[in-house]
Design brief:
By secondary structure, the chain is of the alpha/beta class. The chain is built from ten helices and eleven strands. The chain has a domain at 2-163 and 194-218 and 256-267: NAD(P)-binding Rossmann-like Domain (Rossmann fold). The N and C termini lie far apart (42 Å).
Amino acid sequence: MKIFVTGATGKVGSRFVPYLLKRGYDVRILVRSTERALPLKEQGAEVVVGDLLDNENLAEAIRGVDAVVHLAAQFRGVSEEIARVSNIDASIILAKAALDAGVTRFVFSSTSLVYGGISRINPCSEDDVLQPVLPYPRTKVAAEQALLKLYREEGLDLRILRFAFVYGDHDPHIEEFSPIMSKWNPSLQMSLVHHEDVSQALMLAATTQDVNSRVYNVADDAPISIGELLRLNRFPEQVPPSGGWPSFSPCDMVLDTTRIIHDLNFHSQYPSFYTAIDKKASIDPERAGA
């Protein structure tokens, strides 16, 4: 089976592509920089140089693969206009190119941030109403809706994955985000997902038959409190603001993963952050620990 991947040199893609190659899949990647893609090429990936927004031969680049996995996105540090073009327009262009190439299976990487903006008393479900406030998840919701329209009107075999907070495999995501998390109520619970399980979910979404037009939450089995996560990573003790910790709803950042377990036979290799610590697979084995 051959899989076409965008965003292959990003945080998720640079781990996902080797994951596929080690399991015997053929992988073709679209990149803008051959230099950044060199490590993946050396591992066996087929490299195509191009840009989603400026590529007349995109359908030809896709032709002959069995599935497209779209990971490329703009997250932080860009204007809303750039985020819209990169996250919405580019996704539509890629999906239409895949259809033109005769490739219908399309895996779209989304985020659990789409559940923001609404207080929730139950874990976030794939069928929940979405009203995110932040620009990035708003673009992801718009892209999801546009791709679902292509499913309804043109037969796109769509699988959308909404990832919880991603960590592990020396990704500094927790460390980068700790200044923001330190201001949150330490009792707030949050779902996490290790990079190994991100890759597992993407592979299952790309290879499993008969699940088109489905949305899946991807997370581990044991949400963790913000206070515990920061303590385990040995960040400074949280200091409450003068007015006390802000209130929160219990499930604002907790995901229900029933659907992906049932449909795709997903079983987390890192069911909790403690498992990652035990396996020395958290952000920094020297830093994280009880």
